[in-house]
C-alpha cells in the first residue's frame, strides 16, 4: 500500500538540496526548510521500506513507521529509532554512515529491527 505523501517531491528535494549546500559550507538552514527536508525524507523512507514494525522519530519535525514485520497497536513500539534532524539528514544523504551515527551517541535505536543501515542513504548529495 502506497503511503500518503504530504510533501511533493520537487519541494522536498529542494529543501534537502538547500540543507546539503548549507551543511557543506557550514551555513545554517532555516527551521522551515529543515522541517520540510526531514518530513520529505521520512516519507521517502516509508515508501521504500513499507511496514509498521519500526518507528523512526526525528523530533520535533516528524515520525514515521516503516520496515515489514509485526505491527504494534498500543504504547511504545518495540523497535524505535530516534535522532536529531541534522544527523538524520546526514544519514539520508550519505554524509555519514550508520555505525558512525551510532557511535556519536545522538542516535538511539532499540529493538531487533531498529538497524536502518540497509535502507540508507536514501538520496545522495555531494
Automatic annotation (TrEMBL):
Transmembrane parts of this sequence: none
Superkingdom field: Bacteria
Descriptive protein name: Bacterial SCP orthologue domain-containing protein
Range of residues in the leader sequence: none
Segments forming domain Bacterial SCP orthologue: 31-122
Amino acid at each position: 500500500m502506497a503511503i500518503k505523501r504530504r510533501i511533493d517531491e520537487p519541494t522536498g528535494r529542494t529543501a534537502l538540496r538547500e540543507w546539503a549546500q548549507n551543511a557543506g559550507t557550514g551555513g545554517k538552514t532555516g527551521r522551515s526548510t529543515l522541517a520540510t527536508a526531514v518530513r520529505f525524507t521520512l516519507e521517502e523512507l516509508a515508501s521504500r521500506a513499507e511496514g509498521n514494525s519500526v518507528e523512526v522519530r526525528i523530533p520535533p519535525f516528524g515520525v514515521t513507521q516503516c520496515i515489514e514485520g509485526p505491527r504494534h497497536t498500543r504504547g511504545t513500539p518495540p523497535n524505535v529509532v530516534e535522532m536529531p534532524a541534522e544527523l538524520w539528514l546526514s544519514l539520508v544523504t550519505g554524509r555519514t554512515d550508520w555505525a558512525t551515527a551510532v557511535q556519536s551517541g545522538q542516535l538511539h535505536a532499540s529493538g531487533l529491527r531498529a538497524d536502518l543501515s540497509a535502507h540508507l542513504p536514501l538520496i545522495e548529495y555531494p
